[in-house]
Amino acid sequence: MSTFIEIPVWSEPLPFRYFENDGGGPVFPHRHKEIEIIQAVQNQTRIGVGDRMYTLEAGDIFFFAGGQPHYFLPSPNSLRNVFQFDIAIFDVQLMQTSLSGINETMLHRPPCSQDWPKPVAAEVTRILAALRQAAGDGGLRATVIGNLYLLLDCFVHRLPELKDVPAHSADPNILRAQTVTRQLNQIYDCINDHYFEPISLPAIAGLVGFNPQYFARFFKRNTGSTFGRFLLNYRVMKACFELTESDDPMPDIAERCGFGSVKTFHHEFKREMQTSPLEYRKRMRKEGTG
């Protein structure tokens, strides 16, 4: 089984999205660094993870940790809710953990609600309902983020630990995907910890033991973006949060988000967001009070 990389496109700077899928056709094997949650709404949803198949009945919930290869078999007349979010949305410094640490913990939890304690399944169902409602209102970012933290608490602290995580050593494609995912998570952790500092491609290439030329090809092949573009997008995303959540002056935000100067910050932000940082802040404040 070969897999391809999926790169979600967020409709706004908040790296979260919700949509419905009718299950009418197959979804070929793929993986992404984002966490994904599937909630079966109508009829059966059939999911393949590695060499194991799961059949979800209406009301069942399933989550994928970042980087897990998975696919869907056609499920005619079915309907499922899909939630995706970037694990980098969590404040790992405050939680005293790492992105890869969170992801590794989730790999050791039962992914299907059929194996969860009933109170946890009921709580996750309630949280997903709140996320669906908030997803329809762009001004409810705090609600989305708060509920994602509640989800993380359910998955990490309220689910039993799997003693024997299924091994997929028989499939070299899955082993290769797991290796790539670990390497990407190292890179994402480094970016999350140091985005406010100068980050050179040679330095981060050395983190995973690659020479710069190979690293550049590896990163583009597995993320669909150049490293420079990815880092810039990440800094702009952080700036969006800063502009929305604080009244700090532009020079302070530019420095905290890793831009070398206010001029560079204004130029890159406007190029990415099609508006100036100041106008973005005004628009977000207006939407939040509208």
Automatic annotation (TrEMBL):
InterPro entries reported in the protein's UniProt record: AraC-bd, Homeodomain-like_sf, HTH_AraC, HTH_AraC-typ_CS, RmlC-like_jellyroll, RmlC_Cupin_sf
Pfam families membership: AraC_binding (PF02311), HTH_18 (PF12833)
SMART domains in UniProt: HTH_ARAC
Keywords, ordered alphabetically: DNA-binding, Transcription, Transcription regulation
Every HTH araC/xylS-type domain range: 185-283
Superkingdom of origin: Bacteria
Keyword Secreted annotated: no
Cross-referenced PANTHER family: ARAC-FAMILY TRANSCRIPTIONAL REGULATOR, HTH-TYPE TRANSCRIPTIONAL ACTIVATOR RHAS
Name of the protein in its database record: Helix-turn-helix domain-containing protein
Naturally occurring in which organism (per UniProt): Lacticaseibacillus yichunensis
